[in-house]
């Protein structure tokens, strides 16, 4: 990593965390979720501290432990499938004091493992496909379609930009395009299909599965150029976007900080991608 970029990266991350804290503070101010702000503040501080420590470790260290982390990740994904379902899925391992999703660990591990094997040999493309497929299958069985697609997306971009694909990535994509329609019609649960349909045509499902999406879009649009001001978003304050403290947190930024705030946030994410390029 270039020295100038390495020095700027902590400030970039801190700015993104600051945006997140502002949004959480506003979305939960004065309601039953107000404790989320302090929880987010704690995890941000912990994550930033871990980042500062981990960033000083060499690539050789991560390369040495990548395979062991992969085995641990696979073990956790198998264990979670053996646990009793919660709300129809098996995604969390609960230790009482703290709980976590093994699939979140898998996201980090697959990046490390692919970087390791691709740096060793071009022939490791097949290993990358097999391991990614195994992780994706275990996560899909939880079921967690969104995380499954994310794991596959991570594999695609790392493989593409590492130039380890040759003609085989085209074959995999063609096979994927053939399998995807079959998966959509025969392999998905009803709620998963509803999410896809509501994403493709939110207005049609505005009163049902796409309600939060449509409300979030309206909140963002109502923010105008400079926004209504922190804690002054009507749709945020009066619960017109029910999940604005979680999946739809961006609507809070759009409504209260407007086009200027959302553009600033997107620029910070763009800078982050440039920094880690």
From TrEMBL:
Keywords: Cell shape, Membrane, Transmembrane, Transmembrane helix. It is found in: Membrane. It comes from the Bacteria. Its main location: membrane. It is a multi-pass membrane protein. The lineage of its organism: Bacteria, Thermotogati, Thermotogota, Thermotogae, Kosmotogales. One of its GO terms (cellular component) is cell division site. This is Rod shape-determining protein RodA. GO terms for biological process: cell division; regulation of cell shape. It comes from Kosmotoga arenicorallina. The chain crosses the membrane at residues 7-29, 41-59, 66-86, 92-115, 124-140, 146-161, 168-188, 257-276. Coiled coil: none annotated. One of its GO terms (molecular function) is lipid-linked peptidoglycan transporter activity. InterPro entries: FtsW/RodA.
């Amino acid at each position: 990593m270039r020295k100038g970029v390495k020095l700027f990266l902590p400030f970039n991350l801190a700015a993104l965390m600051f945006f997140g804290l502002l949004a959480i503070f506003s979305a939960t101010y004065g309601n039953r979720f107000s404790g989320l702000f302090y929880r987010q503040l704690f995890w941000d501080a912990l994550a930033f501290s871990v980042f500062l420590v981990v960033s000083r470790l060499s690539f050789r260290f991560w390369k040495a432990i990548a395979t062991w982390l992969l085995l641990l990740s696979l073990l956790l994904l198998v264990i979670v499938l053996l646990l009793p379902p919660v709300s129809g899925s098996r995604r969390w391992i609960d230790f009482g004091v703290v709980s976590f999703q093994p699939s979140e660990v898998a996201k980090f591990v697959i990046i490390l493992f692919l970087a390791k094997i691709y740096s060793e040999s071009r022939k490791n493309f097949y290993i990358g496909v097999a391991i990614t497929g195994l992780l994706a299958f275990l996560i899909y069985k939880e079921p967690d379609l969104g995380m499954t697609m994310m794991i596959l997306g991570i594999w695609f971009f790392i493989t593409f930009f590492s130039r380890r694909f040759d003609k085989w990535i085209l074959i995999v994509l063609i096979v994927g395009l053939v399998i995807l329609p079959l998966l959509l019609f025969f392999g998905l649960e009803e709620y998963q299909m509803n999410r896809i349909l509501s994403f493709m045509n939110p207005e049609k499902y505005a009163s049902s599965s796409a309600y939060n999406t449509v409300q979030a879009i309206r909140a963002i649009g109502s923010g105008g150029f400079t926004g209504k001001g922190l804690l002054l978003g009507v749709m945020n304050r009066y619960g017109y976007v029910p999940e604005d403290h979680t999946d739809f947190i961006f609507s809070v930024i759009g409504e209260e900080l407007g086009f200027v705030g959302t553009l600033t946030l997107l620029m910070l994410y763009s800078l982050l991608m440039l920094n880690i390029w």
